[in-house]
Fold each of these.
Amino acid sequence: MTEAVTRGKSRAGDSLRRVEDDRLITGKGKFTDNRASAGELHVHLVRSYVAHARVASLDLEAARQSPGVVAVYTAADLAADGVNPFPAVKGFTRPDGEPMVHPDRHAIAGDVVRHVGEIVAAVVAETQAQAADGASLVEVDYDELPVTGSLEQAVEANTPAIWEGCPSNAVAYKEFGDAEAVAQAFAQAAHVSKLDLRNNRLVGNALEPRTVLCEYDAETGRRTLRLGSQNVHGLLGGLSATLGVPKETLRVIVEDVGGAFGIKSGLYPEDVIVAYAAAKLKRSIRWRGTRSEEFVATVHGRDQISHAELACAADGRVLGLRIETQGSVGAYPTGAGLAIPLMIGPKVATSLYHVPAFHLQATAYASNTAPLGAYRGAGRPESIYLMERLMDQAAREMGIDPVEMRHRNFIAADAFPYTTPMKEVYDSGKFGEVLDRCIEVSDWNGFAARQAQSQATGKLRGRGLSCYIEWTGAEWKEEVRLEATPQGLTCYSGTQAMGQGIITTYLQLLSESLDLPLEQLQVLQGDTDRVQGMGSYASRSLYIGGSAVKEGAEVFLEEARKLAAEALEAAPEDLIYQDGRFTVTGTDIGVGLLELAEQQPDQTISTTSSTRIPVPSWPNGAQVAEVEVDPETGKIQLQSLVAVDDVGNAINPMIIAGQVHGGMAQALGQALLEDAVYDESGQFVNSTFLDYALPRADDLPSLQTELHPGVPCETNPLGAKGVGELGTVGATPAIVNAVLDALREQGVTHLEMPLTPQRVWAALNH
Ligand code: SMO
C-alpha cells in the first residue's frame, strides 16, 4: 500500500483517496434534485391506501379546478396515448410446469390496485405544493378485495389469489440438484440438522430518495430523463418499450447518485409518468419522492422463508443438503424479484463447502405488498445466512467446534477449478487460510477471558462465525471508449458510479496503463448518448468494467502508437512510450499524447473496445462477531466485527475497506433492527423512520477488515473479484450466530431476525 495521493500518478494497489469526495462532501454534488430546469412543472402522485381493490371510480374534477393544476392523468389517459404496461417478465414456469402468468403492471394502475402505494392518478401543477393540494382533492372509490398481506399468508393454502390465473399465489418454481442422491445421503447420515428460518424483508433506504426530472426539447421532441439509476441503457430500453417510442427519441442522464444498492436498477412507474407528462405538456416535469413514498414504492429486498436439512457423517462431514425456499415477489414481478430466490440465491446455496448431494426447490409467491427487487447481495445474503446458521447448528448439535466444522467441509485449496452442484465453477480460493487468519485477527481463542469480564458486569457474551462466498456479475460484457483531446483524456464507461468510488478506481487503472497523471484523466458515465454498457449491480463494475478500462487503455495506446509513428516518421516498434510521451529510441525526438491529439484533423484520438469476462468472480471471506447481551433488557451490543476477505487483486484497498464497512453496517441492520412488516390487511405497518430502525453510529463498534493476499481471480485481466456486496453477505450470519452463542446456556437455539430486544428478552423469559 502506498501513500494516498490526489494528484500525480497512481496505479492499481494504491489506497488513493476518492477523487469524488471533495465535491460530494462540500455540497457540490450534482444530484437530480439539485438541477433546476426552466419552466418545470411538478407531479404529485395519488397512491392507493388499500392493498387490494377494484378502483370503482375516480373523481378528478375538484383536482382539475385546483389552483395551479395543469393536468390530471389516470391509467385511461396513458392507455389512450399508447403507453404500454411494463415489459412482461419471461422465462419462468409455475410449479405445474406451465409458463408463468402475471398481471400487467401499469405506471398508473387501471382497474385494480394490488399494493399500498400503487399509483392511481398523477396531478401536474405549477408548484410542488399546488400539485399536492390538487392531489388531495382526487376522490377515489375502492371496492376492496380479499388481501394476501404477506409471504407467510401467501404460502398458506386457500389464501386469496391476487393474480388472475394463479390460484395458489405460487407464481414460479425452480428445482435444482438430485433429490434421489440426497435421499440416499440422508439414509446414511449419522446426524441430520433441520432449520426453519425467515429472511426478513428490508427497505433499501438510499440516502437520496429518488427524483425524476424529464426535459422536453421543443425543436426535436426528444425527451431527456434525469434520475439516479444504476443502469442508463437498461432504463432506456424499458422506458422506450413502455412509452411505445423509439429509443432514439429518449436520452437518460445520471449524474451523482446518493446510494442505490440495487433498488435503483430497474424501471419505476414514476419514470414513465414523468416522461409521459413531459411529452404531453411539452414542458419539463419533476417528481421528487418523499421518504414516505420511497418506503412504499421502491422495490424491497429479501423476504424469504426457508426450510433446510443438513445430513452429516459422524465426523461432521456434510453428506447432503436439502433446501426448500419460498421467496416473495410482492404484487408484481420484477426480473430481479424472481431471479433472486429462483436463480441467484441458489448459485451459492452450497457456499464454499463440498456438498456431495444437493437438492433445492424454490417457489416464488405473490402478495399484496410492494414488489421485490435487488438489494445489496440479492440472493447471496439469503443463501449464506441459511447455510451459516445450519453449519453452526449442526456443529453445536454434534458437539463439534464451529471452526473445525467449517474446516472439515471447505472445498480444498487444491480442488480448483471446482464445479459446484449448481454447475458453477469456482476459479480460486483459499477458504481454510482465510478462516484461520480471521480466527487469529479476531482473537477467537482469547474469548473466554472477555466472556468472564462480560459476566462480571451481568452481561452474556457470545462469539459467532460466518464463512461466505459470492457469485458476482451478469451481463458479462463492457465497452469503453477512450478519447484524448489537447485538454486531457476521457474514458467513457457504461458502468455507473453511485457512491462506491468506481471513478477513483478506474482513474488508477488509467493512470497506470497510460502513464499519465490523474489531473489529465477523467471518467464519464451515465449518459445513453455517450456511453455503452450495462450499468452497475451484482458487484460487476470493477472486474468486468475495470477489465474493459484496462484493455481499452491498451487498445488506445496501440492506436496512438501508430499515429505517433506517422507523425514522427518512425516505425511503431521503434517508439518508446513513457510519461504520456512517445520517443524514437535513442533520440530525444518525440511527441506527447495530448500534443499528438492536437495534431489530428479533429484534434482527437479515440478508440472503442469491448471486453468480455464470461464468468463470475467468486469473492469470499470469513467474519467473526462478538456481542454482549443484556439479559435484563434483551439489548444486544455488537462488541467487535472482523472480516478477512479474498477479493483477488485489490485495486484500491482503502475503497474496499469502505465498501466492506458499509456492507457490515447494512448487515447489522438486517440482523438486529430492520424488518418491513405488513399486516393481514396489507398495510405497511412500519413505513417511516419512526418505526423502521436503521443502524446508527452507536450500534457499531470500530470495524476491522483485512484482505487475504495471493488469491488473484483467474478469469479476468485485473485478477480482481467483486467486492460491493461482500460485507453484507458475511456479517448478518456472524452477528446472529454470536447472539445465539451468547444465549446458548439459557437454552435458546433459534431466533428470527431482526434480533430485537423484545425477541431476545422473550426468548430468555419464555
Ligand atoms: S443488489 Mo445489486 O445493485 O445487484
Amino acid sequence: MNFSEQTERWKAIADSLKPQLNHQWRTAVSIVRMVSDPSVWQGIRSEEISSVPEILDKELPETWEYIFDFGEYCVGYPEIELEFRGIFDSPFRLEYKLSETPYETSVDFQTEINGLSRSWFQDGVITVDEPVKKIRFPRRGAFRYLTLKSFFNSRAYHPVLKAVKCDCVSSADFHLIPAKAETLEEKINRISLVTLASCMQEVFEDGPKRDRRLWLGDLRIQALANYNSFRNYDLVKRCLYLFAAGCQPETGRIPGCIYRDHPQPAGGCYIFDYSIMFGDILLDYIRNSGDTETGKDLFLIAVHQCELALEEFEKGCFKDFRRHWLFIDWRKELQKECPEHCVVIYAMSRVFELAELLEMEKELPRDYQSLIAEFRKNGREKWFDPVSGFFTENGQYSWAAQIWAAYAEILPEESARNLLRELLQKKDFLQPGGPYLYNQLVLVLMKYGLKEEARKVIHSYWGAMVSHGADAFWEFYLPDEPMFSAYGNAAVNSHCHAWSTVIIP
Ligand code: RAM
C-alpha cells in the first residue's frame, strides 16, 4: 500500500506539533575525584574533594583540571561564567568531558567502540580568542559530571571561574518531578520521571546522550509512562506522525527509528516487532487523549503494518526468514519465532480493538478476529508444552516467550495468570537481557491484575539500579554483568534511557 500522497501532510502535522522546550538552571554542587573501589557498581565511585565556592574566584594556573559534580542528571547546555586577569595575549583553550557515571568519567574516551562511532562520547575543546565573560557549550550534553581542563595555557593571564551551570531543557514540565524522595518507591518513581523528562525533547528520544533518536519500541513504553505523569499528548501525536511520514515509500513499512533532520523524516533500522506495534501505540494514544481524528487519519497505515507482518508467516505460524531485524530483547541466544508470533497476535488484536473504537471494522482487509483465533491455536500447538505448562522453542525456555504468549492471550486468562506467577520463580529460564523486556513483564503482569507481583519485580530490578546509584534508569542492566554492553564498551551505554521508565501500579 502506498502512502506517499499522505506523507507530506503527515510531516506538516508533525512539524506543527514541535514543542517549545522548558528551561531550568542547575549548578555544580561539588568538586570530586574518581576513586577505584571494587565493592561498587562498575568499580569506580566519586569522592568529594572540595566545594565549588572554594575554587571559584581564584586565579587558575596555566594547567588545571576539575571534575564538577552536578549532583543529578542534567540534559542541556553547560555554561561557564569566567573572567581573565592579566594581558589576554593568546587564545584560551578549554578541554571538557561530559559523563553520566563515575565509570564513564574515569574512561579514556580515545578508545575503540565496536560498531558505534567514537563521536558518541561527549568531549571536546572550546577555544576563545577574546576574554569573554561566558562560555556556553554549543552542543547539548547529557551528564552528571563535567570535567574541565586547561593545559599549558598562557602565563600572561589567569582565568578565574565565576560560575559553572547548566541550562537544562525538556519538553516535560520540570515542576512535576518531585523534589524529594524518601521511600524506595518514591525514589524509583522520581528517577523514572527524571529519566522520562530527560528524554522528552523535540521528540521522545531513547537516550539524551545516545542515540538522541526516536525509536518505535521505546515510544510505546515512553508514551504509557507519559500518560501517567506529564500527559504531553501532543508529543506522542507528533512522534506518531513522524513515523507515519517516515514510512518506506515503496512498501509503506514504518521504520524502527526516525532520523528527523531531513526534508522528509528518514526511516532507519526497520525492526519487525517495533513497526507492528504502531497500532497498539495509536490505540493507547486515542484512549488517553480522546483524539479519534488522529486515529482515523493513521488507521490504515497501522493496519498495513499487520498486513506486512503476515508476509512472515508460513503454515499459520511466524517464521524467521532471516530478512528482518527481530529485536524483542538484547539476549543474543534468545529463540525468537515464538515471541514474534505472539507479538503479531497481540498487535493484530489491538488493531482490531482500534477498528472497533473508530467504528472502522469494515476497513479491515480480512477477518482479523478469526485469524487471531487461528494464530492462537497454532501458537499453542507449536510452542506450548503441556507437561511443563510453559512455552518452549528449540528446547529453550525464555521469559520473553512466556511474556509475549501472555500478551497474546494464547492461554485462557486464569492459566495465563498462573503461568506468569510461576514464571517469576523460573530463574533457570532465559531471563530478560535488560530493562526493555523487564518493562514488558511489568506491563503484562498489570494486564492480568498481578499488581503485587509487578511491584516485587520493580522493587528488585529497578530497586537494584537505585542501590547502584542510578541518577536516571539505564539502557542496560544485568545484575551480574556490570560491564555488559551491546557495543563492547559500557562507557558508551546510555545511562538515561526512557524504555526504563517504569510505572508503579
Ligand atoms: C539501541 C537503543 C534503542 C533501541 C534500539 C533497538 O539503538 O537501545 O533504545 O530501541 O537499540
